[in-house]
Amino acid sequence: MNGMQRTGLGVFCALLLAAAVPASADTKPADGKPADAPAAAAGDEARLERRLEAAQKRLEQAAKEIAEISAGMAGEKMTELQIRIGEPHAMLGVRLGEARAGGGVRVAGVSPGGPAAPAGVKPGDVIISVNGHRAAAPADVSHDVRALKP
User: Fold this and answer.
1) First-to-last C-alpha distance (Å) of the chain
2) DSSP track, 42-88
3) Helix (H) or strand (E) holding 133
4) Residue 76 scores a pLDDT above 80
5) Predicted TM-score (pTM) above 0.70
6) Is 75 left (phi over 0), alpha (psi -120 to 50) or beta?
7) Which residues have a Cβ under 8 Å from the Cβ of 129 and sit 6 or more positions away?
8) How many CB atoms lie within 10 A of CB 57?
9) Do residues 132 and 71 make contact, with C-beta atoms less than 8 angstroms apart?
């Protein structure tokens, strides 16, 4: 099993574990008598909401831990696949986020080893223009970068 398969299996297992939250023992009234149905339903719903919130927090923590471990395991084993069709073009090595109301496009992510990483571009940075053309939308940035020679 390769590292990517182990990573996928780890994420799947974490999701299963997080979803399998044990039922609490307080599902019956302490006196053993039937509770008022509407009041019991409201109490059950509130308890389930609390359990759901707690499970979601555990899932987020587990996902973060799995991502950190997977990144460490992949290390040098990570390979880069580039498929080039047509003429070579420039690339930034970023994942573009949303356009900002005042202009510019937010950087949602930076590709490790891509051109933007050693240049110091970080997620959250804003691209204002490309080669003198203002960036009003992610498509503007993509179009203008692709038009550049590498």
Assistant:
1) 37
2) HHHHHHHHHHHHHHHHHHHHHHHHHHHHHHHHHGGG--------SS-
3) strand 133-134
4) no
5) no
6) left
7) 135
8) 11
9) no
